[in-house]
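Lecture 7 notes: from sequence to structure.

We start with a single chain of 298 residues. Read the sequence below before looking at the structure.
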Amino acid sequence: MQIVIVDSSRVVLQIIASLIEPRGHDVHAFTDSAQALQFLAATPSVRVLITSVEVRPLCGLELCWSARLLAEERRPLHVITMSSARNVRSLAEALDSGADDFIEKPPSAEELNARLRAAERLITMQEELIRLAETDPLTGAYNRRAFFDRARMAAEQGGRPGRISAILADIDHFKRINDEHGHDVGDLAIQAVAELIAGDGIGGRLGGEEFGLVLPGCGLAEAIARAECLRESVQALCIRGSKHAISLTCSFGVSTWIEADDVPALIKRADIALYAAKGRGRNCVVPYQSDAGLAVAS
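Now the structure, written as tokens:
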């Protein structure tokens, strides 16, 4: 696991690191709690924070609370506080501030590693719960809720005109596939398209045979080209049907970020363009033209 340790004493940091590094953990040590918090925010792969209560400029309890807010973004993070003064009040304050565990400083190797093993078990369960909550069970792609959550996070980081785009895709005549070949074959078709969609970017299954893809750092022209590549890839698929192999096509709608935009509006415009693609004969890419307010064929 990746572990962050925070203490005002470099000697204490070295001691604790020497206790857990031989167990294969990657340790990141900080004497400055603000720097540690910045590292935690920028490194979502960190799974454990071990911090003394007596640190600066953020005290250990403030660091615990801030770290817990990070973990609320569906991120497993186990927080252990340390103090040389173990008493009921210190323990209660630490737990109320978001800590999961409390140990005396300096800890023994046996106790510390036992607590880390317990933390690893809890983190594994949390990761599985998050996976189940965020993924579509048929395809393994993001489900609708997780797709929109991830898209909002991407927009907060880089949502500016022309620098984030969305593609919506829908399998053409999907009901016919289910009716003629059965739902098992329909599921294979959905899985095959989802695998193509889940490339670079934020891809998800929005429901039924509809899929979404958000492309951070991507302008409209690039998103149209990406959608066209996906259209050709879908058309090249060959799915084993109940009677014979079947081919698929998808229709695509594309939109890009505009001034004062938000993710629901971005997706809505892509959906309008997708509807236009269906009306123009399917198996095509249609971008939404924000200046004219209409979707036009590419």
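The longest strand covers residues 164-171. Keep this in mind for problem set 3.
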